[in-house]
From TrEMBL:
GO biological process entries: coenzyme A biosynthetic process
Gene giving rise to this polypeptide: coaE
Name assigned to this protein: Dephospho-CoA kinase
This protein's record includes keyword Cytoplasm: yes
UniProt source species: Pedobacter puniceum
NCBIfam families: dephospho-CoA kinase
Role noted for this protein: Catalyzes the phosphorylation of the 3'-hydroxyl group of dephosphocoenzyme A to form coenzyme A.
Family, as annotated: Belongs to the CoaE family.
EC number of this enzyme: 2.7.1.24
Transmembrane parts of this sequence: none
Pfam family, one: CoaE
UniProt keyword annotation of Chloroplast present: no
Length: 198
């Protein structure tokens, strides 16, 4: 199975782009969502999270207190690294199991930290979704009803855009002028051809 990673900084529009690939019949594994599901349903992961953050990491109904964890990790690099070290290997395993079950020419793995976690090395190709930083901040502030400072905290923990550009094979620009659909269609056609040659 040909594996294609797709990433982009916070608010770049990677989930929006993935929805377009899904319309073309391509299955998408959402690593951020999978990570949060594992924190709730995988006992080993859950135990490690409680060890790191205490019982307050979960609400009484056993759901994840995302805000509590986010308020800690995006201000404390050590805690963030420790959380990443728990989640990333578990997500990697879950993706491998999932990808083996798919039957399409290729699959997509959407991950915010594709390059930072080095998981891009496991993929055949990687797509970078880019968007001007001010537009990203505005979109996330509107989507999550959050502050500029909180968005900037996360941006600071991510690899700079020019570093990501060096590592990607395909590029999608999600600004206010270019349309996403033709860009997605073009890359999809190229990937289908590459999968046939594999
Ligand atoms: C801290 C958590 C609980 C906050 O959850 P929340 O629902 O607020 O955010 P969500 O997971 O939807 O992420 C939204 C965006 O925040 C940014 N972000 C999330 N985790 C990280 C991180 N470890 N480092 C830098 N940016 C991050 C990304 O741009 C991401 O797209 C959650 O993000 C988390 O568990 N992060 C650590 C694990 C991880 O690295 N996940 C991402 C890849 S698997
Ligand atoms: N081309 C666009 N036109 C209008 N709105 C857009 C466009 N692209 C993205 N958005 C909006 O911007 C917000 C961020 O997009 P999206 O959730 O796809 O980004 P993301 O990269 O997945 O974000 P995150 O890193 O936080 O997971 C969403 O509310 C989305 O609907």
């Amino acid at each position: 199975m040909m594996k294609v990673g797709i990433t982009g900084g916070i608010g770049s529009g990677k989930t929006t782009v993935c929805k377009l690939f899904e319309l073309l019949g391509i299955p998408v594994f959402y690593a951020d969502t999978a990570g949060k599901e594992l924190m709730v349903h995988n006992l080993g992961v859950k135990k490690a999270v409680v060890n790191l953050f205490g019982e307050a990491a979960y609400f009484l109904d056993a759901s994840l207190n995302r805000k509590y964890i986010a308020d800690i990790v995006f201000k404390d690099e050590q805690k963030l690294n420790a959380l990443n070290a728990i989640i990333h290997p578990a997500v990697k395993d879950a993706f491998l199991i999932w990808s083996e079950k798919q039957k399409t020419p290729y699959v997509l793995k959407e991950a915010a930290l594709l390059f930072e976690s080095k998981s891009y090395l496991d993929n055949d190709y990687n797509i970078l979704v880019s968007s001007p930083v001010e537009l990203r901040i505005k979109r996330v502030m509107e989507r999550d009803q959050t502050s500029r400072e909180k968005v900037l905290e996360r941006i600071e923990k991510q690899l700079p855009e020019d570093e990501k550009e060096k590592l990607a094979d395909f590029f999608i620009l999600n600004n206010e002028e270019l349309h996403l659909i033709p860009q997605v269609l073009k890359i999809h056609q190229q990937l289908v051809l590459l999968a046939q040659q594999k």
